[in-house]
Design goal:
The protein has 498 residues and is α/β, with parallel strands linked by helices. Strand 10, helix 11 and strand 11 form a beta-alpha-beta unit. Helix 2 runs parallel beside helix 4 and helix 6 packs antiparallel against helix 7.
Length: 498
Amino acid sequence: MGRIRAQGTDESSTAPGSDRPAGGSGSRESAGAGTAGEGTGAGVPGGRTPAPRAPEERPGPGEGSHEGAAPGAPATPHGGQGSGGRHGVPAGPHHADRPFAHGGGKGTGPQRPGERQRGGLLMGRPFGVPVYVAPSWFLVAILITWVFGGQIDRVLPELGAASYLVSLFFAVAFYASVLVHELAHTLAALRFKLPVRRIQLQFFGGVSEIEKEAETPGREFVLAFVGPLLSLVLSGLFYLALLAVDPSSVPGVLLAGLMISNLIVAVFNLLPGLPLDGGRMLRAVVWAISGKPMTGTVAAAWVGRALAVAVLIGLPLLTQSGALGSDAVDNVGMDTVLDALLAAILAAIIWTGAGNSLRMARLREHLPELRARNLTRRAVPVETDTPLSEALRRANASGARALVVVDPDGVPLSLVREAAIVGVPEHRRPWVAVSGLAQDLTDGMRVSAELAGEDLLDALRAAPATEYLVVEDTGEIYGVLSAADVERAFVKAMARPS
C-alpha cells in the first residue's frame, strides 16, 4: 500500500534563440523567443494596443507525478518517471501581438505536473517531511472496520459491538504500518540527498513524493526495495509477538491480522511491474544492464500493464476457485461481484500508473531541452522617466518583446508588465512613465541565461513570479523570461515523441 511518486518535471525544447545584443544599450536578445506567453509576461505589445485574439486553449493539468499503483508501491515524484512534463517552446511571431490573459506581479510561476496541493489532514513532520491523511483514508478505515469487525465477531462473539472498536484499532494500526513502509522510502531518499515533498496516506495505501530521480540504478533499486523489506520485517515482528499470546484473544487476532496484512503489502509491492516497488526494482536492473534509464522504464511499464491484465482476470478466478483459502462452493453471488470490483480497481490503478511512468520518462528524456536562453524574450532597457509611447517605439524598432527599467547607470530596477501596458489607452501613453507600470525586481527574479532543465524549473519555483530578468554571467541583461512561455513549453514537451 505504499508507493513512491516521482514528481519530476519536464521541459521542452525551444526554438533556437539568437545571442545578438538587443536593441538598446547593454541588452541581449534571444531571437526565437518572441512568443507571447499566455498568462502574464513581459512581452511588449506593439506601439498600439493590439486587438485581442481568441484566447488560446490552455493545457489542462499536467500528468506530472505518477502515483504508483497499488499498495506499497513508491510513487516517485522524481524527475524520472514520476514527472509529467512537456517540451517544445512555441516559437514564432504569431503570438507577438497578443496581450496576456492576466496581469503581471507575483504569480505562481511554472508548476510541475501534479504539484497542486491535494486535500488532506497534516498529521506531523517526521524527519522534516509532512505526512498527510487524505479524506479517502477515512472511507477505507470505515470499510476495514466493517469487514474486519464482522470477522472478529465470528471469532470472538463475546465482544459484541466492541468487536468493531477492535477492528477500528486494527485499521489505524495497519495504516501506521503503511506509514512505516513509506518512511523507509523517505529515509532512503534523504540518505541519497533526494528531496521528499511529502507522504500521503490515501485510499489504497501511501505515497512518498520524492522530487528527484535516483542518480544510479543501484540507488533506484535500494530506494524501491526498502519499503517491502520493512513490511516483511513488520510481518515477522508481529509473528514473533503472536507466539507470546493466545491466538484466540483480542491481541492474538490483531497481531495475526497485522502479520498477514503486512505480508500481503510486501508481496504485492514486490510484483515486477511499474508503478509498484517491484517494478522500480525491475527498472533498476534493466537500467543497469542496458545503461539507459528509459529502456528500464519501458520494460517495467509494459510488465506493469501485463500485471494489470493478470490481476483483472486472475484475482476473481483465484478467489472463485478457492485457491486463496476460501471454499469455492461459497464463492458466488455478492462475494464474486466484490472480488471482481476489487480486481478492476487494482488493475486500473496499476495500468494507469504504468502509463504515467512511460509519460514521465518520455518527459524526463526531453528535460534538458528547456533552456532559459532559448525561451527568453528580447528586451529593451529604458530609464524610469521614459514615456510609455517612446519605450514602445524603441521596442518596436528593435523587434523586442519586453521592457526593462534601468537606472542612469544601466542597472536593472524593474520589469514592465505587458498587462499594464495594454491597459493604458494609446492617447495617454506619451504622458505615462514606464516606471508606473513596472514590477520591482527581487533577487529571485534574476535568473542566469545558462540555466536549463530541472535547474531552471527549480529556480523559478523558488521565487514564483510572472516574469524574470535573464542575465549573463557578467551581469549583462540578456532579456526577460515569461513564466507563461515556460509553462507552454513545458506542456508541449508532453506531446513530443521520444
